[in-house]
Amino acid sequence: MRVLVVEDERNLADAIARGLRKRGMAVDVAYDGDSGHEMAFVTRYDVVVLDRDLPGRHGDQICAELAASGELTRVLMLTASGTVADRVEGLQLGADDYLPKPFAFDELVARVQALGRRATPAAPPVLEVADLVVDPARRTATRGGVPVELTNKEFGVLCELLKARGAVVSSEELLERVWDANTDPFTTIVRVTVMTLRRKLGDPPLIETVVGAGYRTAEVVQ
């Protein structure tokens, strides 16, 4: 899942980003409304965690423009004011959810995860191919009933491939969906991650390379 945090309180923004990354999300951060607006419309994020009172472009304007754009990006609006009138106003602007400060971090994570599930075309809660079963919510993967231990990036790549349901997913798409903006676009990290993922999943292979195009889940004949 790709998340953008737009928050001018740097310590808070960095803390949110660190926490979400520990949960396996790819997170970018903007500290003002102008840079947040630019990033939100250059990269397709699943969720934007958006502070309402931002320097530069106001959070209300960013929210309204995202809602009007027709993108699948979901907006979780943060604000220090938590009155009913404020929540109603934020939702009317196009926010998908609203969380007043201060908040419990576990609640923030749960809300981001719920919005992320709505940001992409509907996928089953449990992803399967052959004897591989992946539960994104619980972050578990088993093959033939045996647990497979995966890193956050390996798990993210696997989920993206399974959600594609046999369609080819390019290295560029995987880099955009699983890694953040600080990743070198010319890196071989996707190829290396797929290689280690294949090894951990075992035989018969479940991921095949489509030369010049990317990767897809393989059809395994039992």
TrEMBL record:
<feature type="domain" description="Response regulatory">
    <location>
        <begin position="2"/>
        <end position="116"/>
    </location>
</feature>
<dbReference type="Pfam" id="PF00072">
    <property type="entry name" value="Response_reg"/>
</dbReference>
<dbReference type="GO" id="GO:0032993">
    <property type="term" value="C:protein-DNA complex"/>
</dbReference>
<protein>
    <submittedName>
        <fullName>Response regulator transcription factor</fullName>
    </submittedName>
</protein>
<dbReference type="InterPro" id="IPR001789">
    <property type="entry name" value="Sig_transdc_resp-reg_receiver"/>
</dbReference>
<keyword id="KW-0238">DNA-binding</keyword>
<dbReference type="InterPro" id="IPR039420">
    <property type="entry name" value="WalR-like"/>
</dbReference>
<dbReference type="InterPro" id="IPR036388">
    <property type="entry name" value="WH-like_DNA-bd_sf"/>
</dbReference>
<dbReference type="GO" id="GO:0000156">
    <property type="term" value="F:phosphorelay response regulator activity"/>
</dbReference>
<dbReference type="InterPro" id="IPR011006">
    <property type="entry name" value="CheY-like_superfamily"/>
</dbReference>
<dbReference type="GO" id="GO:0006355">
    <property type="term" value="P:regulation of DNA-templated transcription"/>
</dbReference>
<dbReference type="Pfam" id="PF00486">
    <property type="entry name" value="Trans_reg_C"/>
</dbReference>
<feature type="domain" description="OmpR/PhoB-type">
    <location>
        <begin position="124"/>
        <end position="219"/>
    </location>
</feature>
<feature type="DNA-binding region" description="OmpR/PhoB-type">
    <location>
        <begin position="124"/>
        <end position="219"/>
    </location>
</feature>
<keyword id="KW-0597">Phosphoprotein</keyword>
<dbReference type="InterPro" id="IPR001867">
    <property type="entry name" value="OmpR/PhoB-type_DNA-bd"/>
</dbReference>
<dbReference type="GO" id="GO:0000976">
    <property type="term" value="F:transcription cis-regulatory region binding"/>
</dbReference>
<feature type="modified residue" description="4-aspartylphosphate">
    <location>
        <position position="51"/>
    </location>
</feature>
<dbReference type="GO" id="GO:0005829">
    <property type="term" value="C:cytosol"/>
</dbReference>
